[in-house]
Amino acid sequence: MHSFIASNNGQKLVRLLDVMGLKEPLRRAYYKILARKEKVLPSKEIISISPHNIKLYEYFIRFHISKGAKFITSADLYPRFDKKNDEYYIHLRHDIDYAPESLHLFLDIEKKYNIRSDIYLILSNDYYDVDPYVKAFQSYAKEGFVFGLHTLAPAYEDFYSVLRDELDIFQLKMGFSAKYFTIHGPSAYPERPEDWPVRRQKFLDKVSQRLPSFGFEGSSNYSLDFSWVEDAGQGGFFSYLTEDWITESLPMGHVHAVLTHPCHWVDWPIKWKIHHSTYNEADKLKSFIESARDMNTLPSMKDIEK
Predict the structure, then answer these.
(1) CA nearest 200: which of 192, 211, 210?
(2) How many angstroms separate the CA atoms of 33 and 25, rounded?
(3) pLDDT value of residue 88
(4) How far apart are CA 90 and CA 252, in angstroms?
(5) Which residues neighbour 192 within 8 Å (Cβ) at sequence distance 6 or greater?
(6) How far apart are CA 118 and CA 226, in angstroms?
(7) Of 258, 289, 274, 223, which Cα lies nearest the Cα of 106?
(8) Where do the structural domains in the chain lie, given as residue ranges?
(9) Residue 224 contacts by C-beta under 8 Å, 6 or more apart in sequence?
(10) 15 pLDDT exceeds 80?
């Protein structure tokens, strides 16, 4: 057995796969991912498996406000940002891979504390239709939130052409140009090409020489002096947060980037479902499920045992 999978945290994630009930081909693919990505899997205790409660994000914001953090967007960072050695900075970035309807959970909190963030959009109906959200996004942009392109182009051979098409669509939909971009990394199974790291780096190298020609001022994909924390797990199937996600001590004079994917987050109450086939196992279980759904809370064990 691979060393990570044999480890304590590895076994926790393996048990999670069992709970998730993944079909066998997907499970085998995921085990390969766990073995291949040992170095990027968590070495610390996990405090949350997606979907994460948005309250955790608010706690993160409140904690760092209390410590004097300065929150900045790409509009502050590019083309040049002068950091002070006695301050630390947090750059909030939301990649909208799916579920644009969840973005407001983050922006409502940020507006509450008078801070702003970056939001990056995919302009492909294979992921979501952006049209129903355009007016809301334009309104957020007027309030100081920064919208940019979450590009799919690196996965294509003719990535320049794809990128220009994406930028044209962004301009048409949003009514302003995308000054900043981030790269969407396809899920590890089944659609990520084996040579994805090579394709991604080639794209970054080529585009870096032509940023002005595309109308770009910068991208956090180039900012190697950032420290990062994110909600992304392995392979796109789920995500996790480690125990120090909220309260990690951050160094002065540096930019700490926080990457979230709103599709991994929910607000209270967390809604849960049981597959209908489970109902056939016992009348008591069916009664328990219906009672929990009606009350939006779990009955006590005494109620179940009656």
Answers:
(1) 192
(2) 13
(3) 93
(4) 11
(5) 185, 186
(6) 15
(7) 258
(8) 1-41, 49-265, 276-305
(9) none
(10) no
| Comparison of pLDDT for 97 and 286, the residue scoring more | 97
158 forms bridges with which residues in the sheet? Answer: none
Half-sphere exposure at residue 122, Cβ-oriented, CA atoms within 13 angstroms: 19
DSSP characters for the chain? --HHHHSHHHHHHHHHHHHHT--HHHHHHHHHHHHHTGGGS-SS-EEEESSEEHHHHHHHHHHHHHTTPEEE-HHHHSS-----TT--EEEEEEEESS-GGGHHHHHHHHHHTT---EEEE---TTT---GGGHHHHHHHHHTT-EEEEEE-GGGSTTHHHHHHHHHHHHHHHHSS---BEEE----TTTTS-TTHHHHHHHHHHHHHTTHHHHT--B-GGG-TT-EEEE---STTS--EEETTTTT----TTSEEEEEE-GGGEEPSSPP----GGGGGG-HHHHHHHHHHHHHTSPPPHHHHH-
DSSP strand pairing (240-242 vs 46-49) = antiparallel
Cβ atoms 58, 245 nearer than 8 A: no
CA 284/CA 303 separation, integer angstroms = 10
- Tell me: the pLDDT tens digits for 118-172? 999 999 999 999 999 999 999 999 999 999 999 999 988 999 999 999 999 999 9
Q: Residue 228 has what pLDDT?
A: 77
The predicted model scores a pTM of 0.74
Which is more confidently placed, 94 or 191? Answer: 94
- Looking at residues 47-67, what average pLDDT do you find? 89
Choose among 90, 88, 92: nearest CA to 253. Answer: 88
Q: Are 146 and 195 in contact (CB under 8 A)?
A: no
The domain defined by 49-265 carries CATH number 3.20.20: yes
* 7, two tokens: 């480890």
279-303 per-position pLDDT tens digit: 454 555 556 556 555 544 444 444 4
